[in-house]
Structures are given as structure tokens and as C-alpha cells.
Design brief:
Blueprint: H1 2-15, H2 19-49, H3 68-71, E1 81-86, H4 89-102, E2 109-114, E3 129-131, H5 144-150, H6 152-158, E4 166-171, E5 175-176, H7 178-185, E6 195-197, H8 203-208, E7 220-223, H9 224-240, H10 247-258, E8 262-264, E9 273-275, H11 278-282, E10 291-292, H12 307-320, E11 328-333, E12 338-343, E13 347-351, H13 357-360, E14 367-369, E15 394-404, E16 408-416, E17 435-441, E18 456-459, E19 469-475
Parallel strand pairs: 1-2, 1-4, 2-3, 6-8, 17-19
Antiparallel strand pairs: 4-7, 5-10, 6-7, 9-14, 11-12, 12-13, 13-15, 15-16, 16-17, 18-19
Helix pairs in contact: 4-12, 5-10, 6-9, 9-10
Bound molecules: 2-acetamido-2-deoxy-beta-D-glucopyranose (6 copies).
């Protein structure tokens, strides 16, 4: 209470000035006003007749740059992201169904870019579409649509929409987890040149294209500052790199001419794999899940469900706790000698052996490489998955979920028996658990600002299994707590 009073006193003293000095001050103020007026008028003239400085960047006249975003330093939110999905009139009929899973009308901004008018009517579509222009004049070796889709970043920029900080490109079969995308992009300054994404899971693909390329299906995030440069140089790049295969490769080559490296974020998933992505999502890297691609070419995430049903289910958990989706925690039931791995919102596994955290954080290889359907290698380590279901861990899949208060959740995972696993030997995975409930507090997105640490897991109710039910809790680790057998 004291401090403000003394401050006020000081202020009032400051204004008590001797009379003569007072005259000088008044004159000074008069001069100040005149100078200010002149400055103001010249500024007004300048703004009226000013040729904008982006001409210096060599941008064509018609590219109007909004400069508000340069001034607005508030945290990045969904309204600052302009999506540009690469589609075609032919594929959009079916694939627009995927956008219904994640696109929120009046919140998500952007367009799907098509080669021509689609047959389905406007009202059936959630994502507004635009027809790509000016791409047919470019030479190409493999596909004209690669040229067209590479140009989306340019065409999106050219729209000159206000308050865009990031241009995010994806395919029409990419599912984005937009909350997590915002969490990731918020870490970076859109006024610097950023090129963000992930590469391919299959080494053969990275060798063929590049480890340093953001693969388009997983999503490519381009900051405003980089988009300015890309818009300027894109058409030249398209002419120079006509022999490239994909659209993402053309963008990459162009970004390389500008000299900007890839900022690799592990939540962008090109999913260049064949088969079942289960292993990967059951042991996701410690990074927010940003995107999933190739979803119509992979096994359904949940058994006995279509991919659309599966994604709807996964997104229902994501909506409850976006930052936590598919984050892993590991528990040991020391009495029974079980290892338990949770991938929050998706699956739980029980192993009837004690496996170290180093083993459990390594994805089970339930998939093969994209191009040649080989047994690897991948850009991450994998564990061999025994094809004999009786030698696989007991698997549980998300079944129910509920919010507890405003900050907590209980997700429940139901036992799944692969064909033949129900008949197998009592001694192995035939654990008596049928359902696992997992309590957790909502993970603060701020968690991802710091170096992440895997959350700990606790077996509740003394590990009792009542009516086939087991209860676990995921929680922040105590400072000295470790996941130790
Ligand atoms: C932003 O644009 C306004 C006019 O729209 C202009 O007066 C102002 O000087 C510009 N600011 C910057 C930093 O370019
Ligand atoms: C996003 O941030 C801007 C300010 O940068 C604010 O005006 C706008 O309301 C915010 N939008 C949402 C959806 O939070
Ligand atoms: C997608 O939705 C349309 C109706 O909007 C339907 O006709 C089509 O069969 C659906 N495609 C898939 C693959 O689910
Ligand atoms: C989106 O906005 C339009 C007009 O602004 C409105 O008519 C429509 O109901 C809104 N849709 C949703 C899902 O909020
Ligand atoms: C698969 O789903 C169908 C229909 O929902 C159901 O009848 C069947 O029992 C399910 N099979 C398994 C193995 O869960
Ligand atoms: C069950 O396990 C025992 C011992 O490991 C083995 O002898 C027996 O053949 C197994 N039975 C089946 C059906 O796999």
C-alpha cells in the first residue's frame, strides 16, 4: 500500500516547476507540437503515396502482403494457420470424408486445392475448395499434379488473407491434430524462415528423396517469412526441378535454394509404412501427435472397425486431452512380474515378462517398408513382433472415455483377442484382465515447451483385478522416480 503513495508524491513534485522555467517548458511544448505536426503530415503523405517496401523483395505487384501479423505478437492460435490441402476432383469425393474427422468449420482456415470442379455439391463439403491455376504451363517428367500441388504454397500466399502466420500443406488423406499443430508452431517465430515437418519412416524413401525433406503427406509448415521468399521463387524452381517426382520434393528444392534447413518435428507422420501402424502408435516418440497420413492404405487403427470409425474414436480421446494423445507410460506389476505399456487414448499392452523401458519405448514392428514392403530398415528402432498371437502381449484398445471434473479423464481399454489368441496356453499371455481403466490429469500443452519427460504410471487398488478390471493412473513422475524393473 505504501509504495504507490510515495510514487505519486514524486510525480507531483516533478510537475511543480519555477515560473521562469515554466515559460521555457511551454515554449518547448509549442515547438514540440509543430515538429510533431510536420512529422505526422509527412508520414501521412508517405503512407498515401508510398510504394510498399515488399517491392524490394521483388514480389509481383498483385501480391498484397498483410503486415498486421508482423506487429501482432500474441501467441499463435488456430486462426493464424492457413491450410492448403492437395486434392483432386477425382479423389476428393471419397477423401473429403477424412476432413470431416478433423476439420472444424468456422475455426479451421484454408482450402483443398483441386484440378477442376468436383462432382459433389458445395453443401456436402466441409472444406472450401479452390481450383488451382497456372500450373499447366510447366514442364514435368512424372506428373503434372506434382507441379500443381507444389504450387499450393504460392497460391495460398497469393490469396493475401489477413493474419496468416503459417501455411500448412497436407494431402487430402492427411488427418491433422490441430491443437497439437498449434502447440508445435507456437514454439517458433513466424517472422523467421521456418520449414517444419517430418521425413519418411522408411529409410529407402529417405535415401531416394531426402532425409532433410518434409514429406508432404505428413504436412509441411512454412512460416510467413519463408512463404514470402517461396512465393517469389516458386515458379522458377518449378521450371528448374521439372524432373523431380513429387510436389514435396519441389518445395524442398526451392527451400534449399533459399538456404533454409528442415526443422524436424516428430509428431508429423508421413506413415510411409505398409500393414498395421499399431506398433508405432503404441510407442510414439515423446512429441505431440500432429498428423497421420496414408490412412486409407493402412490397416485400421482399431480392430474390427473401419478406418473412419477408428479415427473418430482416436479423436474422441484427443478431444478430451489433446496434448496427451498416444503418449506412452510404463508400469510394472512386480508381484505378477508383468510389464504394462500405455499409449494414452489408444492402447494398453500387458507383457508377462519384465521388459526394460528401453525395450518398451521401441515400437513393435507390425508394418513393413513403404516402397518395397521390406522388413526395414526404418528411421527408428523396432522390436520384432512374434506372429504367434499367444506370444504377443495381451492387447487392449480404447473403448470408453469420460471426463472427470474439468481437468481429469478416465479412459477404458478393452481386451482384444487376435484370431487364435483366445485358445492359447494358460501359461503365457492368458492374463485374466479384460478391461483396464486409466486415470489421468489433463496434460498442459505447456509441457511441450520444455524438454519432455515420460510420465510415470501407477498401479491402483494394490493391483487387484476385480471382475477382470484393472485400474492404472498416469501421473507426473516424482523428481527421483524412475521406470525401473
Ligand atoms: C502496416 O500497414 C499500415 C497500413 O496498412 C502502415 O501504415 C504501417 O506502416 C505498416 N507497418 C509496417 C511495420 O510495415
Ligand atoms: C488468436 O489470436 C488473435 C490475436 O493474435 C486473437 O485476435 C484471436 O481472437 C485468437 N483466436 C482464437 C481462436 O483464439
Ligand atoms: C464418403 O462420403 C460420401 C458421401 O458424402 C459417400 O458417398 C462415400 O461412399 C464415402 N466414401 C468413403 C470411402 O467412405
Ligand atoms: C459458420 O458460420 C456461418 C456464417 O458465418 C454460419 O451460418 C454457420 O452456422 C457456422 N457454422 C458452424 C458449424 O458454426
Ligand atoms: C466385430 O464387429 C461386429 C459388428 O460390430 C460384431 O458383431 C463382431 O462381434 C465383432 N468381432 C469381434 C471379434 O469383436
Ligand atoms: C501349453 O504349454 C505347454 C508347456 O509349455 C506345452 O507342452 C503345450 O503343448 C502347450 N499347449 C498348447 C495348446 O499350445
Amino acid at each position: 500500500m505504501n509504495k504507490p503513495c510515495t510514487d505519486q508524491l514524486k510525480v507531483s513534485k516533478f510537475f511543480v516547476v519555477p515560473e521562469k522555467l515554466g515559460d521555457i517548458v511551454i515554449n518547448l511544448i509549442k515547438i514540440g507540437i509543430v515538429v510533431g505536426l510536420i512529422a505526422f503530415l509527412s508520414l501521412a503523405f508517405q503512407t498515401a503515396f508510398y510504394k510498399p517496401s515488399w517491392r524490394l523483395l521483388g514480389l509481383p505487384e498483385h501480391l498484397r502482403i498483410q503486415n498486421d501479423s508482423v506487429i501482432d505478437n500474441g501467441p499463435t492460435n488456430i486462426s493464424h494457420i492457413l491450410f492448403g490441402l492437395g486434392g483432386s476432383a477425382q479423389t476428393w469425393h471419397d477423401r473429403s470424408n477424412y476432413s470431416k474427422i478433423w476439420w472444424e468449420p468456422n475455426t479451421t482456415r484454408g482450402f483443398v486445392w483441386l484440378d477442376k470442379k468436383p462432382k459433389i455439391s458445395h453443401t456436402e463439403l466441409l472444406v472450401p475448395y479452390k481450383i488451382s491455376h497456372g500450373w499447366r504451363r510447366f514442364k514435368y517428367l512424372h506428373s503434372a499434379s506434382a507441379v500443381r500441388i507444389a504450387r499450393i504454397v504460392y497460391e495460398s500466399f497469393k490469396l493475401g488473407l489477413p493474419d496468416v502466420r503459417w501455411f500448412v500443406m497436407g494431402d487430402d488423406d492427411t488427418v491433422f491434430f490441430t491443437n497439437n499443430l498449434v502447440t508445435v508452431l507456437r514454439k517458433y517465430d513466424h517472422n523467421q524462415m521456418y520449414y517444419i515437418g517430418g521425413n519418411s519412416e522408411s529409410v529407402e524413401q529417405d535415401v531416394l528423396h531426402s532425409y532433410d525433406m518434409a514429406f508432404g503427406g505428413g504436412g509441411i509448415a512454412v512460416s510467413y517469412a519463408l512463404a514470402v521468399q517461396l512465393a517469389r521463387t516458386m515458379d522458377g524452381c518449378l521450371r528448374r526441378y521439372f524432373y523431380f517426382y513429387g510436389s514435396d520434393q519441389r518445395v524442398w528444392a526451392c527451400v534449399n535454394e533459399i538456404g533454409v534447413p528442415l526443422t524436424h518435428e516428430k509428431g508429423f507422420h508421413q506413415l510411409d509404412i505398409r500393414g498395421d501402424p499399431y506398433g508405432l502408435l503404441a510407442a510414439h516418440p515423446m512429441a505431440p501427435l500432429v498428423s497421420l497420413h496414408h490412412i486409407d492404405q493402412l490397416s485400421s487403427l482399431f480392430p474390427n472397425q473401419t478406418q473412419t470409425q477408428s479415427l473418430t474414436k482416436l479423436i474422441s480421446a484427443y478431444n478430451l486431452d489433446p496434448a496427451r494423445i498416444v503418449q506412452q507410460s510404463i508400469c510394472y506389476d512386480h508381484r505378477r512380474k508383468w510389464s504394462i505399456s500405455i499409449s494414452w487414448g489408444y492402447t494398453v499392452q500387458i507383457y508377462t515378462t519384465m521388459l526394460s523401458a528401453a525395450d518398451l519405448q521401441m515400437p513393435l514392428q507390425t508394418f513393413r517398408t513403404w516402397r518395397t514392403s521390406s522388413d526395414g530398415p526404418f528411421t527408428f528402432n523396432t522390436r520384432w513382433m512374434n506372429p504367434d498371437p499367444s506370444k504377443q502381449p495381451a492387447m487392449f484398445f480404447l473403448d470408453n472415455l469420460q471426463m472427470v471434473g474439468s481437468q481429469g479423464s478416465i479412459t477404458s481399454y478393452k481386451r482384444f483377442f487376435a484370431k487364435g489368441a483366445d485358445k492359447c496356453n494358460k501359461s503365457h499371455v492368458n492374463v485374466q484382465v479384460q478391461r483396464i481403466r486409466v486415470s489421468a490429469l489433463k496434460l498442459d500443452p505447456e509441457y511441450w515447451k520444455n524438454v519432455p519427460r515420460r510420465e510415470c504410471c501407477q498401479i491402483m487398488e494394490g493391483g487387484s483385478i476385480k471382475g477382470g478390471n484393472m485400474h492404472l493412473r498416469v501421473k507426473k513422475c516424482r523428481p527421483k522416480e524412475t521406470t525401473t524393473i
